[in-house]
Amino acid sequence: MDNQILGLLAAILTTSAYLPQTYKVAKTKSAKDFSWMWLIFMWIGIFLWFIYGLRINNLPLILANGISIISLTIIGVVKYVYRQS
Amino acid sequence: MDNQILGLLAAILTTSAYLPQTYKVAKTKSAKDFSWMWLIFMWIGIFLWFIYGLRINNLPLILANGISIISLTIIGVVKYVYRQS
């Protein structure tokens, strides 16, 4: 299997694994399953992976982390906006 | 910042984000917060990232996913072994 396809397959799997949770968080307006510590560590980490992917011109890294950043941002925004409920 | 350092920093952040949960799962012998679907998608995805990292000889990818595979395997084993409780 060509490396690029392998990387893209990995990217699709680890990115799509978060989509059901992101959808559930957006629908239920509740992100209590996610701790702020985990969210912050992951957000910064995935952002660095994204920058790293851009720098070494690696498509799987750019796609996986570009989409994951959006998922995590949605979860973080919901967690902050609906923190009282 | 040198690319390798940037990649290793990203690897440390996204890998260590899972350590508290892995520790909690191992200590409480409960992995109910994790769905099987998420675990399987992530396990296969991270395993493919690990192989991809080996193939393109990328240290950050090898380290991050090599350690994450261990975390996920611990969570999966606990979830299976203590599934009745």
TrEMBL record, chains A, B:
Gene3D superfamilies: 1.20.1280.290. GO terms for cellular component: membrane. Keywords: Membrane, Transmembrane, Transmembrane helix. It is found in: Membrane. The keyword Membrane applies. The keyword Transmembrane applies. It is a multi-pass membrane protein. GO terms for molecular function: sugar transmembrane transporter activity. This is Conserved domain protein. The chain crosses the membrane at residues 36-54, 61-82. NCBIfam families: SemiSWEET_2.
